[in-house]
Design brief:
414 residues; alpha/beta; Leucine-rich repeat, LRR (right-handed beta-alpha superhelix); 3 domains; 15 helices; LRR_dom_sf; Ran GTPase-activating protein 1
């Protein structure tokens, strides 16, 4: 892939002279190369008059562009100017025969933006629309290709009614491999709809490999109407699943049990499991460890904010001692204290690179020792405890200061 990038500081407006310079640079880059193109215009403010400078050049390469990145390009523009810029991209690229990937994150599209981009949005197999102001109304207008492979809709306040629109379309997307629906405020009603849609979709579609429903209401499963049951049905039918994100989904140990049972049934070889913020506690760690010991492919494990404490960490140790695939682990905000950190120091995790331990009680010496073991250790620097030997030195110094003061007072009294 050949990348053409607009560079420059984030959200700084492009001028016509800068646009002309970019065209010259890109033409030079193209000379010795006929590879597919990644065009990245993200995080710069593009007014219509500046885009017009690019028009002829872009039309000449429109059928070479594989990936088009347009994240955060209309911030700071008044509504009409922003819509005019979006319309430009639809006009230029709607005829593309090569566009596979389209990124439009962090643009306030709303229903008018979706309407203006109607033709462009139907081209790519991979479509990313995170934080774009989507709602039920704009989703009703949104049309994507029927064989779409990846769609990311996270961080949109779609709500339960919008979730129903997405859920209705899921069974139609029989080539779908990636669904990101994190932070869309579906409530339990919308979460139920999405999970039912996935369950129906996966009956005939074995391709799903990445699911993110972070910040949804899956619940524990003690009620048969809880959405976790529908998600588990989908997972059990997804043998190619590689990544699962159920952070902040109110699972608790019972919901985790259902989830791990479904994963085992699917025979999926997960590489990423994110289950932070689910009140898993010690009970959940025991069951999780049983699963992880049978899953040698996990390279990313997120367990933050689960109140696992030292006992839960002890349950996890057999896996941590065995794994050779784990590269990144997050154990932040788990009520872990210095004794628990000492357990991590006694057992080096083979091949681990990143260890995240914010909101964890540890000494400066322990933090230094962890950094000697792993290339990237994230802790709260300002909250590190002083080591015992340093505390003893401080105590001795305080005692000596008291003795010196007493001597001075005695001398003054004489």
């Amino acid at each position: 892939m050949l990348t053409l990038h607009s560079h420059g500081d984030r959200l700084v407006p492009i001028t016509t002279s800068i646009a002309e310079t970019l065209v010259e640079q890109w033409q030079t880059q193209l000379l010795p190369n006929d590879a597919p193109i990644v065009l990245d215009l993200s995080c710069r403010v593009w007014r219509k008059e500046c885009l017009d400078v690019l028009r002829e050049f872009l039309q000449s390469i429109v059928n070479r562009i594989h990936t088009l990145k347009l994240d955060d390009i209309i911030a700071g523009l008044v509504t009409e100017d922003g819509l005019a810029s979006l319309s430009f991209f639809n006009d230029v690229f709607s005829s593309s025969k090569s566009l596979e990937v389209l990124h439009l994150d962090d643009n306030a599209l709303g229903i008018r933006g979706v309407e203006l981009l109607r033709e462009l949005l139907q081209l790519p197999h991979t479509l990313t629309l995170e934080n774009t102001g989507l709602s039920k109304e704009s989703l009703l207008v949104l049309q994507v290709r029927p064989d779409i492979q990846a769609i990311r809709l996270g961080r949109n306040q779609i709500g339960p009614q919008g979730a129903a629109v997405v859920a209705e379309r899921l069974p139609q997307w029989q080539h779908l491999q990636v669904l990101h629906y994190n932070g869309c405020r579906p409530l339990q009603q919308g979460t139920k709809a999405i999970c039912q849609g996935l369950s129906e979709q996966t009956r005939a579609n074995p391709h799903l490999r990445d699911i993110s429903v972070m910040d949804s209401e899956l619940k524990s499963g003690d009620d048969p109407e809880h959405p976790i049951h529908d998600l588990c049905a989908a997972i059990a039918q997804s043998p190619h699943l590689k990544a699962l994100n159920v952070v902040d989904c109110s699972l608790q140990p019972d919901g985790l049990e259902l989830l791990l049972t479904a994963l085992t049934k699917s025979k999926a070889q997960l590489t990423s499991l994110k289950i932070s913020g689910n009140e898993l506690e010690v009970e959940g760690m025991e069951r999780l460890t049983e699963y992880l010991l049978q899953c040698p492919t996990i390279d990313c494990l997120e367990l933050a904010t689960n109140e696992i404490e030292q006992e839960g960490l002890e349950q996890l140790l057999p896996y941590l001692q065995q794994t050779t695939s784990l590269l990144e682990m997050n154990l932040s905000e788990n009520l872990l204290e210095t004794e628990a950190v000492q357990l991590l120091l006694q057992h080096k995790i083979a091949n681990l690179e990143t260890l995240i331990l914010t909101e964890t009680e540890m000494t400066r010496k322990q933090a230094q020792q962890l950094r000697a073991m792993y290339s990237n250790v994230v802790v709260d620097e300002d909250d590190l405890l002083e080591d015992d030997d340093e505390e003893e030195e401080d105590d001795e110094k305080d005692d000596q200061d008291i003795e010196d003061l007493a001597a001075q007072l005695e001398k003054a009294a004489l």
